[in-house]
């Protein structure tokens, strides 16, 4: 199956990055969100991220102009119906994702492939509530999408090989690398990454180190590009907590219990960069540790 048009649900951190790379790869993109303001902010961000690539000679000004012209926006979810491929990148809450799929279903073409950028929710369960479990799968990008090379492709129990192959071809066309993951809680990357981040929060909670020493240790001692607490702020502490809960509930092993300090930050609304405060305070010139 030849995919030409891509619908993206959600213009947030992940959605705008996905629109960015899809448009640069030549796909016609329609991106939707609930507010016009969110869509406008996303277009501005895509423009500035592409400009950064132009200024570093990663892409030409012409490629940027062509790609920007390929991105349409709409606040009407059902406008995405005619797309060949739909990638849902809304909030990491199952009820939200389910409601989106329910609204979309009557408007889809028979051949439309439905996917979710979920970082941890069961693909098989999401698929089972649609009319096309064989044409449903997980299409999981990493943040920042234009920079990170990996895409996890997750088959639900019913996903057919035609659907998998079509998605794999899209990943190839993006110039990214696909990793095939089985549909178990949090798949591969987050199954390994989130317990490490959660352990970093326990290390902070128990006073083994402070924010600075924990992040420096992992940057300088393990060559990670970001420290685990800085990375948690970058991903969003609410997302980190949601993924730990999926691991804890889905695998029923206490080794996945979310650190109470992570829960406390989320309860405070200190969700990381997106709210200007998390393990660091981003309101000034340079980030300042909050512990
Ligand atoms: N769009 C386009 N280009 C971008 C970009 C964006 N949004 N963000 C960064 N870049 C580019 C920069 O222009 C720069 O390009 P050059 O190499 O040509 O100079 C390059 O990326 C590096 O950026 P910076 O120099 O600004 O900063 P850096 O060297 O500190 O790198 C980083 C930034 C790439 C984010 C790096 O710190 C990193 O790799 N961090 C770890 C990220 C990570 O682990 N992501 C996965 C999170 S887990 C996940 O996403 C899954 C989930 O479900 C939660």
TrEMBL record:
NAD(+) binds at residues 10-15, 33, 92, 97, 119, 143, 274. It is an enzyme of class 1 (oxidoreductase). Keywords: NAD, Oxidoreductase. GO terms for molecular function: 3-hydroxybutyryl-CoA dehydrogenase activity; NAD+ binding. GO terms for biological process: fatty acid metabolic process. Pfam families: 3HCDH (PF00725), 3HCDH_N (PF02737). InterPro entries: 3-OHacyl-CoA_DH, 3-OHacyl-CoA_DH_CS, 3-OHacyl-CoA_DH_NAD-bd, 3HC_DH_C, 6-PGluconate_DH-like_C_sf, 6PGD_dom2, NAD(P)-bd_dom_sf. Its EC number is 1.1.1.157. The keyword Transferase does not apply. The record marks 140 as: Important for catalytic activity. Residues 5-183 form the 3-hydroxyacyl-CoA dehydrogenase NAD binding domain. Residues 187-282 form the 3-hydroxyacyl-CoA dehydrogenase C-terminal domain. Belongs to the 3-hydroxyacyl-CoA dehydrogenase family. This is 3-hydroxybutyryl-CoA dehydrogenase. It comes from Pseudosulfitobacter pseudonitzschiae.
């Amino acid at each position: 199956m030849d995919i030409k048009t891509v619908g993206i649900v959600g213009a947030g951190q992940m959605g705008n990055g996905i629109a960015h790379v899809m448009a640069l790869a030549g796909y016609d993109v329609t991106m939707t969100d609930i507010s016009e303001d969110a869509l406008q902010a996303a277009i501005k961000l895509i423009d500035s991220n592409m400009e950064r690539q132009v200024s570093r000679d990663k892409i030409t000004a012409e490629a940027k102009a062509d790609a920007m012209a390929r991105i349409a926006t709409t606040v009407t979810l059902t406008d995405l119906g005619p797309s060949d491929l739909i990638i849902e990148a809304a909030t990491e809450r199952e009820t939200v994702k389910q409601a989106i799929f329910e609204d979309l279903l009557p408007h889809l073409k028979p051949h439309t492939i439905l996917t979710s950028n979920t970082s941890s929710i069961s693909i098989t369960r999401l698929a089972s509530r649609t009319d096309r479990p064989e044409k449903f799968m997980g299409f999981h990008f990493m943040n920042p999408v234009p920079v990170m090379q990996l895409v996890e492709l997750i088959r639900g129990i019913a996903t057919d090989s035609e659907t998998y192959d079509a998605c794999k071809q899209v990943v190839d066309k993006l110039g990214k690398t696909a990793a095939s993951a089985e549909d178990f809680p949090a798949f591969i990357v987050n199954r390994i990454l989130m317990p490490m981040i959660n352990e970093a929060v326990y290390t902070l909670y128990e006073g083994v180190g402070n924010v600075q020493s924990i992040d420096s240790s992992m940057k300088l001692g393990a060559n990670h590009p970001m420290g685990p607490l800085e990375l948690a702020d970058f991903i969003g502490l609410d997302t980190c907590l949601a993924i730990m809960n999926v691991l804890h509930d889905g695998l029923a092993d206490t080794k996945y219990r979310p650190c109470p300090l992570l829960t406390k930050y989320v309860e405070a609304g200190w969700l990381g960069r997106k709210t200007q405060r998390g393990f660091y305070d981003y309101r000034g010139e340079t980030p300042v540790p909050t512990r």
